[in-house]
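User: I'm putting together notes for a lab meeting next week and I want to include a structural view of one of the chains we've been expressing. I don't have a solved structure, so I'd like a prediction I can at least talk through. The sequence is below, exactly as it appears in our construct file.
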Amino acid sequence: MPVATAGRACEAPPPGTTFVDTPPSAALVEQLAILRRPQTAEDLAAIDRLGTLPLGRVHRSGVRVAHAADGRSYVLYPSTARRPASRRCRGDVPWPPVHRISVFTEQPDGTFGGGGLYSAGRLRTYADGFGSFGGGPGGEPTILYALVRDGVARVTWVFQGGLRATGVVQDNIAAGEIAAGPLGLRLERTIYEAADGTILADVEA
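Assistant: Thanks for the context. Below is the predicted structure for the 205-residue chain, given as structure tokens.
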């Protein structure tokens, strides 16, 4: 509903998800090769499986299914949302767009698990750490994953206590696992490497 501030009225962006036919942000496309490949029938089928998750304006032509090196599938939904630049209504000044991409893990039964949200700016500066799922009480490993920009071939996650895990990159997804429950994982740093071993970034959490 409209919120009045300083005598002006602002309409909040509608909740939920709306599919649009405009292409994803160039800021995302230029960093992610998976968005530059042709869309497949598998990608198109994933559009109808999103359900009612509130992702904003999802770019239909940008939906992709990524096949990670560990054999798991991840579904990518590029979207554009609008939010206030401050906590106060800005009157007639348009709210700036936020270009982002949501990543969901695809389970064997076809349902979604995990989930992560990445912005174009944070991808560019290697500012995102990891997502995780699994690691239940039965001693199963915790699955780690991250969406990464082009040029990254490996990601090493370094956790408190000396635990380390490495994720090999395929389809812009770094995927690995670690023999620890997710609640006990405190990330200290993330190391991004090129295929030739060059350190692209070493980011403290």
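A couple of points you could mention at the meeting. The mean pLDDT is 82. The chain has four helices and 15 strands.

User: Perfect, that's what I needed.
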